[in-house]
């Protein structure tokens, strides 16, 4: 990696860490420069402003999340568990998603915060992540209903009961318990998913 690329990456890493700990408004370009061990002028060499820096980081991370999720890991999970039950596939997807969110929580927290106040980031997230996740989850839910494993419940309801609980669990760990450990969340999600699926199973599988 070139020195310029290393410098830019260090600026990005420091920005994520500082905003995660102190919030966007309390993070100055001066503190980012000190953390990155560069001058403020160097930051503006790569980014026009602090706002531009944050926007660039979030868009790049959303693109990476999309590539990892919809082009790599999720298709792999479907292929790996294609001969198993849809319930098993859904459990594995939720387990992987919980681990992914836990490992990337600092940047995910910032993305969620910015989506509430930045319309450009919100739309970018919806177009690149949410719509893809909707298509993927609908595919699993429809398969579950087609095979008779799931009741004929609206997909949005199933999504809220599964992925919604996943997001809540991670946020609870981060804000109330102040710790986000992938292994802990995976164990807890296993129990939560089992409880949720009890209500989704069709009478044929009871």
UniProtKB/TrEMBL annotation:
<dbReference type="GO" id="GO:0003677">
    <property type="term" value="F:DNA binding"/>
</dbReference>
<dbReference type="InterPro" id="IPR050624">
    <property type="entry name" value="HTH-type_Tx_Regulator"/>
</dbReference>
<feature type="domain" description="HTH tetR-type">
    <location>
        <begin position="5"/>
        <end position="65"/>
    </location>
</feature>
<dbReference type="InterPro" id="IPR023772">
    <property type="entry name" value="DNA-bd_HTH_TetR-type_CS"/>
</dbReference>
<dbReference type="InterPro" id="IPR009057">
    <property type="entry name" value="Homeodomain-like_sf"/>
</dbReference>
<dbReference type="InterPro" id="IPR001647">
    <property type="entry name" value="HTH_TetR"/>
</dbReference>
<dbReference type="InterPro" id="IPR036271">
    <property type="entry name" value="Tet_transcr_reg_TetR-rel_C_sf"/>
</dbReference>
<keyword id="KW-0238">DNA-binding</keyword>
<dbReference type="Pfam" id="PF00440">
    <property type="entry name" value="TetR_N"/>
</dbReference>
<feature type="DNA-binding region" description="H-T-H motif">
    <location>
        <begin position="28"/>
        <end position="47"/>
    </location>
</feature>
<protein>
    <submittedName>
        <fullName>DNA-binding transcriptional regulator, AcrR family</fullName>
    </submittedName>
</protein>
């Amino acid at each position: 990696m070139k020195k310029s690329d290393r410098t830019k990456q260090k600026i990005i890493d420091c920005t994520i860490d500082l905003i995660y700990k102190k919030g966007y408004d309390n993070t100055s370009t001066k503190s980012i420069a000190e953390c990155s061990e560069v001058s403020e002028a160097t930051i503006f060499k790569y980014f026009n402003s602090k706002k531009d820096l944050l926007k660039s980081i979030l868009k790049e991370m959303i693109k990476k999340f999309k590539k990892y999720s919809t082009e790599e890991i999720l298709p792999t999970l479907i292929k790996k568990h294609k001969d198993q039950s849809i319930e098993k596939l859904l459990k594995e997807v939720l387990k992987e998603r919980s681990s992914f969110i836990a490992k990337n929580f600092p940047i995910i927290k910032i993305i969620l915060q910015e989506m509430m106040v930045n319309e450009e980031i919100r739309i970018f997230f919806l177009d690149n992540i949410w719509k893809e996740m909707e298509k993927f989850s609908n595919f699993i839910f429809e398969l579950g209903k087609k095979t008779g494993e799931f009741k004929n419940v609206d997909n949005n309801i199933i999504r809220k009961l599964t992925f919604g609980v996943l997001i809540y669990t991670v946020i609870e760990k981060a804000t109330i318990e102040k710790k986000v450990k992938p292994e802990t969340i995976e164990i807890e999600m296993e129990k939560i998913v089992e409880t949720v699926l009890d209500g989704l199973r069709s009478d044929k599988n009871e």
